[in-house]
Amino acid sequence: MSLRLRTISREEHLAFIRSLPSASHMQVPSWADVKAEWRNESIGWFDEQDRMVGAGLVLYRQLPKVKRYLAYLPEGPVIDWFDPNLEGWLRPMLDHLKGQGAFTVKMGPPVIIRRWQAETIKNAISGGEAKRLRDIEADWYEPRAIDTADRLRRMGWQQGEDGGAGFGDVQPRYVYQVPLANRSLDDILKGFNQLWRRNIKKAEKAGVEIVQGGYDDLPVFHQLYLETAERDKFIPRPLSYFQRQWRALTAEDPNRMRLYLAYHEGDPLAGTTMITVGQHVWYSYGASTVHKREVQPNNAIQWRMLRDAYALGATVYDLRGISDTLDETDHLFGLIRFKVGTGGQAAEYLGEWDFPLNKLLHKALDMYMQRR
Question: Please, which residues bridge with residue 6 across strands?
Answer without folding.
Answer: 44
